[in-house]
Each structure stands twice: as structure tokens, then as C-alpha cells.
Amino acid sequence: MKKVIFILVDSLMPNILNEGLAARCIPALQYLVDHGELRMDCVTVFPTMTASIDASLLTGAFPDEHKIPGLIWYDPEKKQMINYMNGAAPVSKLGIKNCSQNILVNLNQKHLNKQTKTIFEDLADRGKSSASINLIIHRGYEQHKILFPYKNLLGIHKEQLISGPETLFLGAMAYPGHMKTKLKSFSSGMRHLYGINDQFSISAARELINRGSQPDFMMVYLPDNDHRLHRTGPEKGELSLIKVDRQIERLLNAYSSWEKAVKENIFIITSDHGQTGIGKEKAEHNIDLDQHLKAFNVLQLGEKVSEKHELVVCNNERMAYIYPLKENLQEKAVNILKKETRIDLISWKDGNKIVVTAGGKTDTTAVFYKNGPYQDPYGQSWTVSGDISLMDMTLNNSIIEFNDYPDILSRLYGALFSQECPMIVITARPRFEFTSKYYPKHNNGGSHGSLHKFDSIIPLIVTGDEKENPLPGRLVDLKEYILSLYEKDA
Ligand SMILES: [Zn+2]
Questions:
Q1: What whole-number percentage of the chain has pLDDT above 70?
Q2: What's the 471 CA to ligand 1 centre distance in angstroms?
Q3: pLDDT at residue 231 above 70?
Q4: At 202, phi and psi to the nearest 5?
């Protein structure tokens, strides 16, 4: 039976893929599209940040089930801000040891809900082998040694093991022993992000193919496109996509012909999220959360939570979680945030319901909760009331139609119920992002995190599935789709 090669291209966007195809400058992707199926309207989960999205991709669940709220979040039990690394300055404030322990170990072994199985675990249950190449979520049934040459720098214990499928690559930190010399050149040093780069990922995949040890399912993560789009903005995305295409070409070339590659494999290529261009002027386009919330005693990076603290702000670029630590602060914070017109949606929990308002709209709200008379396009029913135009949503008899905020109900629900504690979710309007002291800014570049379609719509290419099963419309439904490919061929 066919093997599956899954390529996750960070920040791959439908409009940029379209441009590249029209200009005929991405021959490898062109070949896969011409010989397969393509969807340009797939919806990812929220927040549109890699950590929470990869968790949904691998578990087939929203954050309310898999329990990874985002890249940055607050753990009320440990009284700790969790940061899976968003730049040198915030990481150094929180401590490199703390952050690397969180991303390398806790994310997979503690934070990710044990009740939601990863695709690696589900495939192992079915007797299928897997490889995870450079994905940050990689929980499986095997334990792997961390090989990182600078363990002291990371503060990770020498004997620390990390979880993964049978074959686990994580840059210079984890790879099968015999690969060392092959992968060394692009895995050393900070400049190469210690191997978390496209060149390493594709070389690792090629090695497995060339050695005849390609597993039934191989998941390959290509991160470079995200870094480039953060710098240039999506407007220059085609040039970045050409570089991605060159890497996909290297992978196809591991087979004697591209025909053979798609004859022996099903290729799935998708993205985690899009990006939104951010305006150039900092004062204009960066919504300063420290400034807006200065009436509160906000936890500062590196501080220990104490009685005096009133709010924790977890900035995820174009979205933020705001955690009130004391009673009666939520309403006060919402009232301040509502005055900022550059803030897009503002939402919070009220029992099992979600309340939504928007920056600049001081007097209207919409309320929704699960189950009820209205059906969304993905089969979930809801009760909705109030000013639903806030969510750019229309009701056509009992059918819900989404516009600028695709699948907003399930996605907002997933984020707000990822934790039980009170929390406010805010998003920035297009061209704006949130800023906090020490956090990276993306002026004149790209940023993501929000519910808006710019950050949320991703393409999906499947090539080599002769049965031409209909492609799922959401990233969260991809796991089930992949498992079904194995079932049908069994
Ligand atoms: Zn990014």
C-alpha cells in the first residue's frame, strides 16, 4: 500500500500559491497540483499560532480538548507564564532553561492532553510506522535521548528523554544516530536554528528514503517560509514560496522520477496559518498592551506571581489572552479595551456561553453556545443571539454562513475553553498587531494569530490518492482524513 508524506509549510497562503502557479515559477508544487486535488479554502484553528495549530493537526481536536492554548499562555496552577519561544528577549527574561524545558519536554509530555491521541500514536496502534521531522509536537510511544551538544546552555538534564514516534528528528537535538554526519552542516549554530530549518528537514526525509527506511507516515515541517514572511510581509511571498518549492523538488528528486514519487506515495501539502501585512509606523500599527492596561498591576516578564498582581497578558502577535487574577477585574479590563478601535474582537466566557464584542463598539454584544437550532457548515449546531454582525456572520434560515472570520464559533470556543480560568481573548484588526515590552515587532512585515481570514485560510494539496476522497475543509479534520487513507487501503 501507499505511504503518506505530509509536508507542513509554515505560513503557506492560498493567494501566494495561486500567484506562483499562475506565474509558473513553482514547478514541484505545480506538478503535485496538476496530478492531485487542491483546496484553497481550508480553515485552520485559533489562535493562528504554530503550537496550538500543530496540536490540532496531530490530535484532530480543538484547543478545548488538546489543551494547548497558544504559543504564549498562563498556567494558573503553576502560576507561571508558558512560552514556547517567541524571540530572544522574552525568552531570556523568562529564562532559557524554563522555555526550553517547556517546548522540548512539557509541551508534549505534560501540557498536551493525554486523552487526545496524536496521529503517531493512532498509527502505531494500527501497526503503522511514523517519522516526525522537526515538528514541535511529536508525542509518540517511543522515548528519545536529547542529543543537543549544548545541553548546559539549555539547562536540560543530561538524561532527559523526549517523546516521539519510532523516528524522531528535531534539528541537532534529536535524530537517529547514523544520520549525524549527513545532517551536521545545516544543524550547527544559532544561525541555522540548530537544524530547525527547511534544508535539514528535507535532507532528513531524503536520507530515510535513500536508506530504504521510509516509514508508512512521514511528517516533514518546513519552517523557513514563516521567518521570511515575518520579515517581508506576505506581499513578497512569491519569492519565498520559490525557495520552498526548491526544497519540495529536492524531496521529489529522492525518487528516480516524480511519476514514481506520486505512484508510491500520497503527498499531502498544507499550511498552519497565513499572515497579515503590518503597517510600517510603530505608533500607528502596534497596539501597546502595556500602555492600555497600565491601570492594572500587570505581571512583568521574569516576575513571580504574587498577591499584588492583577492581570497576566499573554501576547500571541495578532491575538492576546488576558487573565484577570482577581474577581471583578474582567469587566474593568474589557471596558478599557473596548475603547481601542484598532482592537477587532473582544470575547470572554459567561458560564458555558461566550460573549463577543469589538473595539470601538461600546454597547453591542453577541452571545453563543454549543448546541441549538443553527447549523454551521461543518456539522456543529449552535445557539446564537445578539448582534451577530460583530462576527461577520449571517443566518440563512437555520444555516450559519461565515465571512471574514471562518469557522469563528468553534474556533473561539476552542480557545476560550482551552482553560477553565477566566480569560479575555482579543484580536487585532488587519494591518495591526499587539505589542508588549520585549516582544518581537513585525512592522512592514507579516504577523498572525487572529481569527481573520487573512491569518486563517490555508491551502491543501493531496496528490496520489487514486480514490480521490473529498478533501476536508478544516485543518482539525485532517487527522481523520489521513487515518482513513490507511483504512481504505488495508
Ligand atoms: Zn510565525
A1: 94
A2: 25
A3: yes
A4: -70, -35
The verdict on 327 and 223 lying in the same domain is no
Using pLDDT thresholds of 50, 70 and 90, give the confidence band for residue 13.
very high
Alpha carbon of 19 to ligand 1 centroid (Å): 21
Mean pLDDT, residues 175-204: 78
pLDDT reported for residue 433: 97
Domain CATH code at residue 54: 3.40.720.10
Distance 255 CA to ligand 1 centre (A): 31
φ, ψ of residue 86 to 5 degrees: the values are -125, 25
Task: Please give the tally of structural domains in the chain.
Answer: 2
For residue 234, give the C-alpha cell: 506576505
Spatial CB neighbours of 63, under 8 Å, sequence gap ≥ 6: 45, 46, 52, 55, 56, 69, 70, 414, 415, 417, 418
The share of the chain scoring above pLDDT 90, in percent, equals 83
Do residue 193 and residue 250 come from a single domain?
A: yes
With 0-12 / 13-18 / 19 or more C-beta atoms within 10 angstroms meaning exposed / middle / buried, residue 346 is: buried
Cα–Cα dist 94/91, whole Å: 5
Pair 198, 225 in one domain: yes
- pLDDT tens digits for range 23-38: 999 999 999 999 999 9
Judge if 119 and 200 occupy the same domain.
yes
Strand-pair partners of 18: none
Q: Is the dihedral of CA 43, 54, 7, 198 positive or negative?
A: positive
Mean pLDDT of 265-285: 96
pLDDT of residue 347: 98
CA-closest candidate to residue 79, choices 290, 295, 307: 307
Measured in Å, residue 226 CA sits from the centre of ligand 1 at 5
Cβ atoms 463, 35 nearer than 8 A = yes
390, pLDDT greater than 50: yes
Q: Has residue 487 got a pLDDT over 90?
A: no
Cα 376 from Cα 369, distance rounded (Å): 12
Question: Are both 72 and 207 inside the same structural domain?
Answer: yes
Cα(227) to centroid(ligand 1), Å:
6
Domain span at 423: 282-447
Which strand (E) or helix (H) includes residue 323? strand 319-324
Q: Are 133 and 261 part of one and the same domain?
A: yes
* Claim to verify: residue 442 and residue 460 sit in the same structural domain: no
User: Cα(448) to centroid of ligand 1, in Å?
Assistant: 7
Last residue of a domain, one of 447, 462, 479: 447
Q: Is 234 found in the same domain as 297?
A: no
The residue behind cell 495578532 is 318
490 pLDDT above the threshold of 50: no
